[in-house]
Amino acid sequence: MSIEWIMEGVDPSKVRLFNTAIREKESLHPLREGELTLYTCGPTVYNFAHIGNFRTYLFEDLLRRTLEFFGWRVRQVMNLTDVDDKTIKGAIREGVTLEAFTKPYIEAFFEDLEALRIQPASSYPKATDYIPQMIELIHCLLKKGVAYGGNDGSIYYSIAKFPRYGALSHLKLDELKVGAGEGALHDEYEKESASDFVLWKAYDPDRDGGIFWESPFGKGRPGWHLECSAMAMDLLGDEIDIHVGGVDNIFPHHENEIAQSEACTGKCFVRHWMHADHLIVDGKKMSKSAGNFFTIRDLFAKGFSGDEVRYALLQTHYRIQLNFKFDEIEAVRASLERLNAFVRRLKGVAAPDGEGRPTRRTEAALKGFAEGLADDLNISSALAALFDWLRETNSLLDMKKVSAHEARAALDLLTAANRVLGFITFDEPPVPPEIEQLLRCREEARLAKNWAEADRCRGEVLKRGYLIEDTPKGPQAIKQR
Q1: Cβ count near 480 (within 10 Å)
Q2: Is residue 290 part of a domain?
Q3: Most exposed of 159, 239, 331, 433 (fewest Cβ within 10 Å)?
Q4: Burial track 51-70 (b if 16+ CB lie within 10 A, e otherwise)
């Protein structure tokens, strides 16, 4: 693909992304020229990730792909939380080691990432591999005087010692409700303030079974908030360009990450914070009791493809609550088929090699697509620009007014766009010989005006999961998705 004309139409200085910390869109100013560091909150691997989780992971994928589309190199880290209350309880319940309990869910997570075409991160650190770095961070916080030991042997962070606490969530320290921190929600320990949170959770054999780590503070395990700070700083440095997650992470998780990291280093932990809104199903909060709780695997079992799920979870702006509706999946399928049929049609016209020559229409489509993405990942605007251009180009194709070089440029644009979207199909899987034979059977029957036999052959093709598309080059079998 010749991308010179495409890159000329992409200006990274135009990108403006909403920063949760200031509640405004702003331009990016990387710590290193041409490179962005990105920390993305990953799964807690005590079960299969659900579609609400993947709404966030797909937003993170869209962000990274967009940044790369505009020319930045991105170094992304996504953590795997393999030690917390839920994973420990699960391991004890099943009578296995923590690693044995979490391994199947980690493997399933990566399978789901691949099925949804989510690009691999640079690193997927597991919390259990970074215990030494977490202990070192606790030492730093104790030395700085912002951490203290509780009567129960646990180590806590004193948020009263960090004046900026609440800056991300826009909460004031004196307005925080008692019990707002992880300490009150998950850790029944004595501490100076009910809002302080745990850094090192003292070992309790009744609660933790045989799962613990040795430390200078005694047996125990790290607090959840501490894990992300230690992994992020170890892999990306004391200062990070962008940190993202779901809105439920803003407080207390990300607020606590800031407090821990900045109290230790004295530097700005994250320059730009981004958060995706919740997903609901048919207008209701997703829950097992309501019968509307779905994993990605549940959707595949219902017959949805990875591309369909990806499109469905990406098509709503990340800062708007996504209402997932099963009865709208047909619209998603239709949109995908329009895109894929357009690709096939262009391939039938495009020059087999050489550079494409874009028209003003194609350049305008690129401009509209890029402007939509640059405006805080406005995916609706970006897709609208593509589909408006698709509709106009299809009309011109009907009138045979699209040259081979124009069609090649159009394919170049779609290829570039798909580096962001990830759900357009360019290379159809090989058609099995028996399907090709049925196509020939149908054509021979049609030429002989044996319509009953032609219909029978067509029915057999459909029964095997293929559609027949008549093209200038003859009939083609297209795998149904």
Answers
A1: 12
A2: no
A3: 433
A4: bbbbbbbbbbbbbbbbbebb
User: CA 450, 453, 457, 462 torsion: positive or negative?
Assistant: positive
Say how far apart CA 427 and CA 114 lie, in whole Å: 17
Both ends of the chain: CA-CA distance in Å? 27
Residues 439 and 391 in one domain: no
Residues 422 and 459 in one domain: no
Are both 148 and 212 inside the same structural domain?
A: yes
Question: Does 431 have pLDDT greater than 70?
Answer: no
Helix ranges (H only) for 97-130 are 98-115
Distance CA 199, CA 187 (A): 11
The answer on 56 and 6 residing in a single domain is no
Bigger pLDDT: 406 or 471?
Answer: 406
The Cα–Cα gap between 426 and 345 comes to 11
**Rounded to an integer, what is the distance from CA 398 to the centroid of its chain?**
38
Q: Region 178-203: what's the mean pLDDT?
A: 61
Q: Is residue 67 part of a domain?
A: yes
Q: How many C-beta neighbours within 10 Å does residue 458 have?
A: 20
Residue 405 CA from chain centroid, whole number:
35
**110 part of a folded domain:** yes
Domain of 58, in residue numbers: 31-285
Q: Classify residue 338: in a domain, yes or no.
A: no
Is the pLDDT at 407 greater than 80? The verdict is: yes
- Return the SS3 of 25: strand
Domain of residue 156, CATH code = 3.40.50.620
pLDDT at 480: 65
Cα(68)–Cα(12) distance, integer angstroms: 10
